[in-house]
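Worked Example 4.2. Consider the chain below.
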Amino acid sequence: MNNRRYNIYFHTHTVSGIIICALLYVMFFAGSFAFFKDDLSAWQKNRSHLVMPDASRLDFQSAIDTLALKHQMKGRDLEFFLQKDGENAYISMFASHDTTIKKKLGKTKSNVKRKRGRRGRGGDDDTDYLAYNLARKRSVDYEAGYDIGEFLYRLHFFAQLNVIPLRLGTPFGYLLAGIVSFIFLFALITGLMLHWDKVVSNFFTFRPWTKWKTVWTDMHTALGVIGFPFQLLYAITGIVLIANFFLLAPFTKYRYHGDTPKIYHELGYTDSTQYQYAYQPLEAPLDLNQLIERASQKWPGCTINKIQIKNYGDANMHVIIEAKPAVSASFTGGGKIIYRVRDHRVRSEVAPTGQVGYVNQVKNAIYHLHFGDFGGRPVRVSYFAMGAIGCLVVISGVLIWLVARDKNNVMPRKRAFNLWTANIFMAICLSMLPVTAFTMTCLIFMDKPTQQDVYRLYFYAWLVLSVYFIGRRQLRITNHQTLILSAVFCMAVPAADALKRGNWFWSTFSAGASDILFVDVLFFCLALVNITVLLKMSEQKAKNDHMQKTFN
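Applying the procedure from the previous section yields the following structure tokens:
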């Protein structure tokens, strides 16, 4: 490779990596734990989700009855989004198609902000959103049911930053995550081109006892090559999932003439099919549970994940049920059946394991590859390990950048700026593990923690620890003390769970609550890793001191 190309790849890789390093580390760290979102949720709530509820025990009709207590349901569209735990669902209710319905005067004021229906109709055009437990037949407040698994999952695409009032077609947090994913893809490609000529020889080169720049360079290169396929996969699928607005915007404007619902309908994200409103009441009441049971019997081994109701209570009411097959049966499959309620006639049906269109194949493959839900816990553990390698690659890259610029020929003010930049990065990023373990330990001792409790514990602890290490201005101290704090708090997670709730390893194992057991074992292993690293560092320091004394 000639010098010109090398310099281009080197500088573009360095600049793009430094720009996103802290945000990318947060995405890797939080995303790695997000693979165990359901396990973390079960652990915090001390209720195992391992045994999925039978569909016959789930009461979908009770959710509609709950909404009917507050709203006129005639003519509305409803959407049920079922969660992976099998019993919780998010339900959206939209404006009525019936234009004869008028708003009642003198409605009792409530703290719930009423919104105009997205279809823009008059009459009783309020909408509503409900989190509902289908097994316990009761609504669940989202903030009250918030947990550390949901927090880390949403943190990995910066959903908490959506409160910032800056929207360029998509909420600010999602916009930021999409931009980081684009730059990360650029950094990956330039990094590969930079090391292409020596990719094989560098992969087998690791010199841990030489100068620090060599150590970080070898680690960055070796781990970067190992994790490159995973990181490339994650960059591409992440862009498609979080930044699809940018990808679809040109097609929406020029091919679909600005008709956003149409393009999302054709891509299978929504079903915007309009069924004519008949203005005639349905003769027999809807038995949604019966339709769900029929679909479950028709598609054994599949998981129903979405339900739509069109024109509720009208003679032309339709119910659309979507399901996902087991990955072992079909990696990219997806089923969909449309019932006309008045005669229970099937208007359309696509079997989950049948012929799947190209769009659905790509969409489902991207989803499975990004979330790692196609091979059980072993695949998710492998994804977690690859995510941890990604964190190490980011850290080693920043340290290479720092050491390469810590030279006498560099101006003092530039050296000071570089040190401050690396110091801030290391303080923010290395604080995440002890803060995560600390937050989880505190949540055990809290009675029904809410979303605000999780936010306060995590963000305040993160802020305090980051400011402390930034003030210390010593990378060695930051590294050493975060290892100590990580070991202590990671060990505190299973210890507090056992002492406070009686979840000893053997008790959760005998009870079959492997999701709760896994979280305790995971943090126990993380504590052992941190202790091992501390011991190795102490041994190496003792050897260096002994060699220095001998030399003197």
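The mean pLDDT is 85. The longest strand covers residues 303-310. Compare this with Example 4.1 before moving on.
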